[in-house]
Design brief:
The chain is mainly α and 152 residues long. The protein contains two helices and no strands. The longest helix has 86 residues.
């Protein structure tokens, strides 16, 4: 009975399976996989470049913070120098001048501290906004989202 004879049918299926497997393997190996590899390499380069840019921005931010801290310390040193000089001159003068000078010094200290605090707050807010902007740009470039949709 020819309908039960499966050997010839099975052999032809194996032959065509082999032919299509070789064709599929060749197409994937020489056409599809190189494109995928190239895309993945390009994406890795893109991510690495943005990570290096982010590292540079972080280093700049740390340097700005360090500069502001040195300025704050210099301002405190100057304030301390002013206080010491004022106290020495106040000891020489009479008691009225001592009280007036101490009040004047205290006001100057408060103003200097307020200025330092304002500069510090302004610097930190500028730094925060710059970091938010760079993070938003970084996320926008990686994810292709609109800047309006990203909330940091």
């Amino acid at each position: 009975m020819p309908q039960l004879e499966q050997v010839e049918f099975f052999i032809s299926q194996l032959f065509w399976l082999g032919v299509f497997f070789v064709i599929l393997f060749t197409v994937l190996t020489y056409f599809t996989l190189p494109k995928i590899r190239a895309f993945l390499n390009k994406r890795d380069e893109f991510v690495q470049s943005h990570i290096s840019k982010q590292d540079e921005l972080i280093k700049k931010a740390e340097q700005l913070i360090q500069n502001y801290e040195t300025k704050i310390n210099e301002a405190k040193d100057q304030a301390n120098k002013i206080i010491n000089e004022a106290k020495e001159s106040a000891l020489v003068e009479s008691e009225k001048l001592i009280k007036a000078t101490e009040e004047k010094i205290q006001n100057e200290i408060k103003q200097t501290e307020e200025k330092v605090a304002q500069e510090k707050n302004q610097a930190l807010s500028e730094l925060n906004s710059q970091l938010k902007e760079s993070a938003t740009n970084f996320i926008t470039k990686i994810t292709n989202f609109d800047k309006d949709k990203i909330k940091i």
